Amino acid sequence: MAPVDSKSLNRAQVDELARVNDRYLQWVSAVQRRLNLRGFPIDDELRRVVAKASDGAFELRICLHYLACGVKATPNDTPPLMTGRHGEG
């Protein structure tokens, strides 16, 4: 079987990945909101890990968006501003 990478995915595959990731991003965002509403401290381990998960899902969504647009970027092409929405990266 030939190796597969992001450049070999077709539009339907990228769209399906984006659909699944969007559901996960909504879920992890809801968990993040709940932690905030419950008053979890900023430095709490769970809150930190959930923020990283949210950042990762968001970065994946951006990557999938560009793949759907036909932009074939490598991980090294990621703009510096995409290192994390919460200042982690």
Brief characterization of the structure:
This protein has helices spanning 11-37, 45-68.
Account of the 3D structure:
By secondary structure, this protein is mostly helical. It has one domain. The chain has two helices and no strands. α1 (11-37) runs antiparallel to α2 (45-68). The longest helix is centred in the first third of the chain and has 27 residues, at 11-37. The mean pLDDT is 85.
Proportion in β-strands: under 5%
Main sheet specs = none
- Average pLDDT value? 85
Radius of gyration over C-alpha positions, nearest whole angstrom: 15 Å
| Secondary-structure element pattern, one letter each | HH
**Which regions have little confidence, pLDDT < 50, spanning 5+ residues?**
none
The span between the termini is 35 Å
Helix content: 55-70%
Oligomer: single chain
Report the total helices: 2
Task: Tell how many strands the DSSP assignment holds.
Answer: 0
- Broad structural category: mainly alpha
Q: How many structural domains can be distinguished in the coordinates?
A: 1
Could you say which overall geometry the principal axes of the C-alpha atoms support? elongated
Set out the fold topology.
Elements: H1 11-37, H2 45-68
Helix pairs in contact: 1-2
List its salient traits.
89 residues, mainly alpha, elongated
